[in-house]
Amino acid sequence: MAEEEGWIREKEQILSSLENAKDLTGSLRLLSQQRALEHEMSGRNGLLKNTIAEGQDMVQAGHFAATKIQERVCDLQDQWAALERLAAARKRKLEEALALHQFQTDADDVDAWTLDALRIVSSGETGHDEFSTQALVRKHKDAAAEVSSYRSVIDSLQEQAAALPEEEAQSEEVRGRLAGIEERYKEVSELTKLRKQALQDALALYKMFNEAHACQVWIDEKEQWLNSMEIPEKLEDLEVIQHRFESLEPEMNNQASRVAVVNQIARQLKHNGHPSETDIKTQQDQLNNRWSQFRDLVDLKKESLNSALGVQNYHLECNETKSWIKEKTKVIESTQELGNDLTGVMALQRKLTGMERDLAAIEDKLGDLRGEAERLATEHPDQAKAITGRLAEITAVWEEMKNTLKTREESLGEARKLQQFLRELDDFQSWLSRTQTLIASEDMPNTLAEAEKLMAQHEGIKNEVQNYEEDYQKMRDMGELVTQGQTDAQHMFLRQRLEALHTGWNELHKMWENRQNLLTQSHAYQLFLRDTKQAEAFLNNQEYVLAHTEMSSTLEGAEAAIKKQEDFMTTMDANEEKINGVVEAGRRLASDGNINAERIQERVASIDERHKKNREAAVELLMRLKDNRDLQRFLQDCQELTLWINEKMLSAQDLTYDEARNLHSKWLKHQAFMAELQSNKEWLDQIQKDGRLLVSEKPETEAVVTEKLSDLHAMWAELESTTQTKAQCLFDANKAELFTQSCTDLDEWMGSMEGQIQSDDYGKDLTSVNILLKKQQMLEKQVEVRQREVGQLQSQVKALGQEEQDTEEVDGRRQLLEDKFTELLDPLQRRRDFLVESREVHQFTRDVEDEILWVQERMAVATSSDHGNNLQTVQLLIKKNQTLQKEIQGHQPRIDDILERSVSLLKDESSEATRGRLAALQELWAQLKEEAQRRLDRLQEAHRAQQYYFDAAEAEAWMSEQELYMMSEEKAKDELSAVTMQKKHQIAEQAVEDYAEAVHLLSKTSRGLVAEAHPESERISMRQSQVDKLYAGMKDLSEERRGRLDERLRLFLLNREVDELEQWVAEREVVAGSHELGQDYEHVTMLQERFREFARDTGNIGQERVDTVNRLADDLINAGHGDAATVAEWKDGLNEAWADLLELIDTRTQILAASFELHKFYHDGKEILLRIVDKQKKLPEEAGRDQNTVETLQRMHSTFEHDIQALGTQVRQLQDDAVRLQAAYAGDKADDIQRREQEVLEAWRFLLEACDARRLRLIHTGDKFRFFSLVRDLMLWMEDVIWLIEAQENPRDVSSVELLMNNHQGIKAEIDARNDSFTTCIELGKSLLARKHFASEEIKEKLLQLTDKRKEMIDKWEDRWEWLRLVLEVHQFSRDAGVAEAWLLGQEPYLSSREVGYSVDEVEKLIKRHEAFEKSAATWEERFSALERLTTMELLEVRRLQEEELQRRRPPPSPSPEPQQEEAQQQSVTQNGLPSDPESPPEGVVAPPMVNGDGGSKDPSPGSSPPPSRKKSSQASTLPLRTPDAGTLLEGNLHRKHEWEGPNKKASNRSWHNVYCVVNKQEVSFYKDGKAAATGLSYHGETSLRLQDAVCDVASEYKKKKHVFKLRAADGNEYLFQAKDEEEMSSWIAAVLNAGSERSDRSDRSEPPGSIPGTPVSGRAQTLPNESSPGKREKDKEKEKEKEKRFSLFSKKKQ
Questions:
Q1: Residue 1618: pLDDT band by 50, 70, 90 thresholds?
Q2: Burial of 621 by CB count in 10 Å (0-12 exposed, 13-18 middle, 19+ buried)?
Q3: Which pLDDT score, from 0 to 100, does residue 418 have?
Q4: Of 932, 923, 860, whose CA–CA distance to 890 is shortest?
Q5: Cα 896 from Cα 919, distance rounded (Å)
Q6: Among 594, 448, 443, CA closest to 531
Q7: Would you say residue 1659 has pLDDT above 60?
Q8: Does the pLDDT value for residue 1658 go beyond 60?
Q9: How far apart are CA 1059 and CA 1109, in angstroms?
């Protein structure tokens, strides 16, 4: 135990003494040591437990020192628990330190990355051309992606900081570090975006310059071509130049798009404020000017070209018109011989009517030529004579032709008797054609309602036909009267028309009947569709139910699902009748020849197929449900067997057979139990058989079934093993009796078996043989069971042999039984073989007889001579024969199996009858196959012939029907009927063309049948020749009918166009002649817009339509149409109406424009007035609550003023409009215009005044809040400065005081730097007061607060500065006094020595020594004189004591002021810096004995000396070398950061690193650790830093870390170092300064680290900041003189 306690105390001491690491490496090392300690503790724990267990055993054994042992054990356990807690706390502390150092390291890495990224994204390079800029854009894209991806690293750093301990996570260092990183990352992100924009702008700029250059090059090239181009005179050359201009147009369009791109880029760059905005604008203007000049040049050249082309085209048209007039003159002269009879008169009238149309066209052409001649003569005065001469020639020819025509017309008579009758005949034929077209409409109803509607319309047509019955009779009678007795060709043609009319009337009735039949069929079809939708709804419901039925996981659920499915199938059976009804109705319609028979058959087939699929799916689903039920039943059987096995396992595991009295009964019960197991083995076999059957039928259940069977077999094997074990145990308990009983039972059983095996009955037929085989199988199973019992006898004999000596009799009996049992096996096997052979023979005989019967039944079908009389019967017979062949093919394996079995069975001669039946079977089978093939060949020949006859009959029927249609003489009466007839004819014609392929295939089929010598070849050839003749005649009729229909349709089209266009012009004239001018601006605007759109549509659409109609009319006239005169009349009327419409439109447009201007002025005035009022309302009264609000309001007001600038433009525009309208109107209108103008101008002036007032108020309010913001910022800053002044810690030595003074001077510098801010703020306040601001009182109050606070801050700083100077005096005195006291103590032994010498030499030596001492004392005299002078603090203390003495002598004026005076004294003391810190007690600084000289022999010790513990800790961190002759002043670990590499170059790596620093004479070296310093291996190969002329001071401007000082070398390198506390920092600063000034004294290295080693009195102010005032040095000299008055006690010591 003592050893364990010692070990625990040792580890406690280690855990208590370990210090925290200063960097990440140290943390990892300490944590590794801690883990090693924990492993050691866990290994020691076992030894501790053994020790405690030994102690507990001794206590339990009643040891005489049990109480003490128990106490030691408890104490040891407590110590171990305390050690574990200490280790856990230490580990937690180390882990927290590791997390903090890891965070700092990661933060340093992030800082380094941020600086690198900042350097990259802050680059100002944007490339010198487009290619380099694109490269920079790609690089920047990668950099931006890296910046974006680095967000996750910073987020992880945030998470890492959040995982720190709460005090660390909430510390200023961590939070400041995170805030700095976040700020720099945001800066990098913003710079990334700015650089991206800059690169994009540069890329756009270069792209714009390149595009502009390319455009200018193209313009230069084309300008050179245009300038060198001359306009030719020949028409061919002009057309070549025109073609080149046409090719120039696409190029100009492309260049225009490029110019637009350049302008867009330029506008975008100028909008973004690009620095090269001037160059961009210059380039843009230059390109636009060049482009405009080029376009003007192109337009000029194109105009010249078009003018030259116009002259040449004019000459060409003059020639064509002159030729046209001469041709028409010849036509008129050729009609001199006509007019002798009716035929001639009618022909002459047709020609003259067509001539009038042509003359109208020629007259229009002459008018166009006159206008063109006038224009060209004006444009080309040099060619005016030739132009007018050509026009005079054409005019002369035209006048000559008109005179000739007029003369011919006057010579005609009035021979027009038949015209009226023919016109009426034409009208009736037109009605007849329209009615036939209406009846022949192919519109089919799509719904049942439409079918009923069409049937009603068709009935109305029947009534109309009946009404025309009387007109038809009159027309026939009149025709017979006109043509009676006339034999000329014209009257014969009229008679043919009357016959065609009669034929058309009869066809009209037939067509009505056909249409009636068609509509009836369509109505029936729609009824069928309605029923079909209902049936499909049933089928959809069934499909949904079938698709959403799931398999159950229980037997009950599976049975319920089966019942549900059966109910669903019952419902399907109920709906089947309806579905079958729809199917039967559809088939009935198809068989009746409905027009939609194919669609009906498709729907019927679809419904029937879906119904069958649903029926099959339902049956399949029912089968799957049953399969699932079988699976669930199998799983339930497995579960039941598992339960039974578990139950039997409990019985088998019962081994309670200790009592001998019931041992035999248990053995018997166990034998019964084993017999029950054997009998139930069939249960397992049955389940296994069911499982295999289930797997074979449903392979998807293999995994489940196999798993269940394997589990059952494992449980069964375990049960059998347990049973056998129990049987063996029971047998071992009663071996002899069991053996005897087993032998007896086996002997009896073998006796009964011998009689059964020797039977000679092997069966007489197949049934008896199968029965005997089943009995044989039962005997074999019994033999297997008994064989196992015989095998068990061997083990029983061995067991008896181990207990009894005489075993020969037992073994002999067993051997006898085994021999007898072996003799039974061979007869049993022979009997089984005989039975199997007998069953095979009987089975073969039955199979042969069955096959013979099957073949005889099919032979009658194969030899049938019925080949069918039509195509349907032949197809049915072929299908039956194919079914027979499939049956024969499927039956072939059975025949082959019988033949294979016959080879092995029919070997002996006794089977002759069987061989005969087998030969008969083979003969019948070969005959059946041959007859089936022959019948198939005969049926195929018959099928080909019947198929040809069927196709030929269909072709003849179709062509006969089409021929009747082609022969019809029906003529269209209007356009609709003409179009309908033409469409029908096109469809019929296309059908005829398409049918050519069918006729060709039919001919090819006939030729093939004849070539193959078909029995009906002659009949087939005759039938094919008839089909070919019929098809050729049908094509000829189709061509004739198409020509007649085309001519009729063109006339009707022109008639419709003319009628529609005249009606359209009339409607437009009504609109164009309206006198409505509008009631207000919106109304007149609407009217003007509508009329402008009306005029545009009228001009575009109307002109195009008029040109189209004229062109159609000219085409008909030129083609010599029969109604050419009517066409010319239509054309003239249309052109006149169109000219009138255009004149009306022009007049209406001018009137609306004048009305629009007046109403627009009224509307604009009203709108501007409303907008001015709205702006006045939107002008807010709020002046803002703070600076941000005021700035927002100012921006809003600037936006507001910018908005109203546009309003001012509108006001000026309104003034211009008023001036113009006043000049145009007079009277009340002019006065009203002037009044509206004055209202708007007055409101505008008021709005501008309100805006100016609002802007001034916002400016004053913004100045006020800016002043308040400056005051608030300065007040907060002064609060921070005052807190910083008051929060400084008390110094402990001279170096700490000097550092505090340095920091205090830094505060003074910051205060001085803020003077400008104070001046700005105060001047702003004074200016506000001078302007008599509305918040003058508040501003004045803020000014007073600011000046008071500033005075307070300066007073605080002055008080703190005086206090630091006092404390510096005290600590300097303490240090100098300590040195002096040490020198005095060193000289006291010499002075107290009584040695005077025993010889002259000794005396002389002593004299010399004393003289040296006196010289030394004279040297020290100045120091002692300086120490004798009183310090300022001592003088203040003396003054305070004197004031207290005077206060005591004076009578107190009142009791109340004393506490205040005491409080003031306490405050004075506090302000003078008397410390209350226990480390620097006031007794050691100021004491009365020191002043009076009555202090005894003891010297006062300075209060700044640190306690021993502090010395120890200081030595642990920075250990100076202890060898007095070494050159090293100080060494230790510090955190270092490299700030500057040169005077103006920042360091590339500015992260913090932990280095081992060694300060030598004139230099400082850096190492990784102490070992590296001992070996001289520098940190990263760095050279030592020279300290000559180096500057080392506290880094007061660095706020991120504490205890940081900076070192700046003469070569410009600057480093930051972090110490662990202020004392260590002071030591390092002093060491560096001493090493650099070459004044280090090695004898001072033995001084404690708390004081600056080797610092002389003259050099104690080296760490102080520069003096801020010239009088400071004089004050210090006076204080030095006062110090000489101190230490009068030293003279007493000399005595």
A1: very high
A2: buried
A3: 52
A4: 932
A5: 13
A6: 448
A7: no
A8: no
A9: 11
Q: How far apart are CA 685 and CA 683, in angstroms?
A: 5
Cα 884 from chain centroid? 65
Rounded to an integer, what distance in angstroms lies between the CA atom of residue 796 and that of residue 371? 145
Measuring CA to CA, how many Å separate 315 from each of 362, 391, 735, 1294? Answer: 16, 9, 147, 121
Beta bridge partner(s), residue 1614: 1540, 1608
Cβ-contact 948, 1020 below 8 angstroms: yes
* CA distance linking residue 576 with residue 1574, whole number of Å: 107
Q: Is the pTM of this model over 0.70?
A: no
Cβ atoms of residues 1641 and 1654 within 8 Å: yes
pLDDT digits (tens, 9 = 90+) for 1148-1165: 888 888 788 888 888 888
Is residue 96 within 8 Å of residue 168, measured between CB atoms? yes
What tens digit of pLDDT does each residue of 39-65 get? 878 887 888 888 888 888 888 888 787
Short-list 1181, 1177, 1309, 1330, CA closest to 1267: 1330
Dist. CA 694–CA 697, nearest whole Å = 5
How is residue 170 written in tokens?
């909430």
Q: What residue type is assigned to position 1260 of the chain?
A: H
The string of DSSP codes covering 309-323 is: HHHHHHHHHHHHHHH
β-bridge partners, 1565? 1558
Q: How far, rounded to the nearest angstrom, does the alpha carbon of residue 826 sit from its chain's CA centroid? A: 84
Which residues face 1556 on adjacent strands? 1533, 1567
Phi/psi at 655 (nearest 5 deg)?
-110, 30
Give the tokens for residue 1605: 């000082």
Residue type, 830: R
Closest among 231, 249, 367 to 306, alpha carbons compared: 231
Length of the chain: 1695
Residue 235 structure tokens:
């028409």
What are the tokens at 1632? 């560096």
- Residue 1065 has a CB neighbour count (10 Å cut-off) of 21
Helix boundaries (H) for 1287-1335: 1294-1313, 1315-1330
Q: How far apart (Å, rounded) are the C-alpha atoms in residues 1095 and 1171?
A: 35
Contact 259, 291 (CB under 8 A): yes
pLDDT of residue 806: 53
Model confidence over 1025-1045: pLDDT tens digits? 888 888 888 888 888 888 778
Alpha-carbon dihedral angle through residues 351, 352, 358, 359, given to the nearest 10 degrees: 160
Residue 341 has pLDDT above 70, yes or no: no
The enclosing H or E element of 1489 equals helix 1488-1492
Q: Which amino acid is at 574?
A: A
Query: For the segment 831-889, what is each residue's pLDDT rounded down to a tens digit?
Result: 777 777 777 777 777 788 888 888 888 788 788 777 777 777 877 888 888 888 888 88
Alpha-carbon distance of 1126 to 340, in angstroms, equals 24
- In sign, the C-alpha dihedral spanning 1014, 1020, 1021, 1027 is negative
The answer to whether 260 touches 210, Cβ cutoff 8 Å, is no
Residues 6+ apart with CB under 8 A from 1126: 353
Rounded to an integer, what distance in angstroms lies between the CA atom of residue 1085 and that of residue 697? 87
- Residues 6+ positions from 1183 with CB-CB distance below 8 Å: 1190, 1193, 1257, 1258, 1261
What is the pLDDT at residue 1557? 92
From the list 578, 580, 582, 570, the residue with the least C-alpha distance to 545 is: 570
Alpha-carbon gap, residue 1534 to 1531, rounded angstroms: 9
727 has pLDDT over 60: yes
pLDDT at 343: 53
| Closest of 1417, 1425, 1420 to residue 1391, by C-alpha | 1417
Q: Which amino acid is at 1227?
A: G
pLDDT (0 to 100) of residue 1616:
92
Residue 290: the pLDDT is: 85
Q: How confident is the model at residue 1458 (pLDDT cuts 50, 70, 90)?
A: very low
